[in-house]
Amino acid sequence: MRYGFWMPVFGGWLRNVPDEGMEASWDYVKRLTQRAEAIGYDLTLIAELNLNDIKGVDQPALDAWSTAAALAAVTEKLELMVAVRPNFHQPALFAKAAANIDRISGGRLALNVVSSWWADEARQYGLQFDQHDDRYARTTEWLQVVDGLWTEERFSFDGRYYRTDKAICAPKPVRKPTIYAGGESEAAKTMIASLCDAYVMHGDPASAIAPKIADMKARRERAGGTPMAFGMAAYAIVRDSEAEAKRELERITTVRELPAGYANFDQWLSGTQLERELKIQEYAVSNRGLRPNLVGTPEQLKERIAEYEAAGLDLLLLQMSPQAEEMERFAAQVIGRA
């Protein structure tokens, strides 16, 4: 299993805990990332949202791509998986900038391609927002343009959304960055099986993850691609006793009043095609992070992680709070590399 962590670009992950002790600042993410690299984490996922989806839209949120470029220069081993939303980036210009960040990192850049869900954010920034299946049609073209710029000396493209005319990207990436993507609709799965390298999922029990992996493996085989990797979001709480872990779980999931960002969550819930209905309690932790039940003693977490490995999962993308302190505990007691 590879272990990744979500970069706390929003100043935390708990929507109903106002202050988690990790400010949205360059100083914090720099120290966190360098320490994570030292204690055995493999990857960080840097989310891209211009508005703060966790703490409320009026709160600070770090820019994903300038943060990634800075982290590329001050780390040595960690894979930098940076979220990118195609409707926010012209693909030919993006390919040039991303190739440069990959060069700065020595070949450690990866993309998490997200077909945007937040209509209000796009409207506020004056950007195009497509309907669901149209978003994946746009993303398909976007990926074709980025790949063409990264692999061909001159690249021309004439599509519905994008055009290039003998465009050049030089220097190119050290190696072509890994393309991660997630989605539960038919349009998303079709695109990912054809054009991406790895499939990332919201949190679910291993019994629900196993058939999703099997389905995507079959789709990939039909598409004629190389084997895919599989990742999943999860929120982790590790304590010396199960009772301690459950007390922490109760603390982070008790919702006494609807926080400032609830309207954003409601819009996301209504705008995506999730296979199962999200419970309102799960608002406290994003990306269905509590469903994997990585809550308990080190031995319990190791057993559950082994079940995911048996199901074919390669990567856990972890959220914790407060991030630095909990990542230290998880590395020492679960990963065992610290």
TrEMBL record:
The keyword Oxidoreductase applies. Keywords: Flavoprotein, FMN, Monooxygenase, Oxidoreductase. GO terms for biological process: alkanesulfonate catabolic process. InterPro entries: Luciferase-like_dom, Luciferase-like_sf, SsuD_RutA_monooxygenase. It comes from the Bacteria. Residues 21-314 form the Luciferase-like domain. The keyword Flavoprotein applies. Pfam families: Bac_luciferase. One of its GO terms (molecular function) is alkanesulfonate monooxygenase activity. SUPFAM superfamilies: Bacterial luciferase-like (SSF51679). PANTHER family: ALKANESULFONATE MONOOXYGENASE (PTHR42847), ALKANESULFONATE MONOOXYGENASE-RELATED (PTHR42847:SF4). This is LLM class flavin-dependent oxidoreductase.
